[in-house]
Amino acid sequence: MMVQKVSSSSCADLAANMQKPKNTAGGPKEAIMGDFIQALKADPALKADFFNQVSIPLATKLFDCGMIPPR
Predict the structure, then answer these.
(1) Any long-range contacts for 59-66 (C-beta under 8 Å, 24+ apart)?
(2) What percent of the chain has pLDDT over 90?
(3) Which of 4, 47, 52, 65 could bridge to 11 as Cys pair (CB 3.0-4.6 Å)?
(4) Three-state SS at 65
(5) By percentage, how much of the chain surpasses pLDDT 70?
């Protein structure tokens, strides 16, 4: 889902989303994210699978939008 959202976003939309302040209210979304991060730390195979699926499309989009290296 995240890869599709990033891939289909325009560079302007992606830059705007990266500038938005993060919600640190500690709601259910943050709890799920914390659990997910812990799962990635605990399971090297899960971490490798996640980064293999997410990092290449994300890095490619950031590079194509001129965000890597920052302008």
Answers:
(1) 61/6, 61/7, 61/9, 61/14, 62/14, 64/11, 65/11, 65/14, 65/15, 66/11
(2) 44
(3) 65
(4) coil
(5) 90
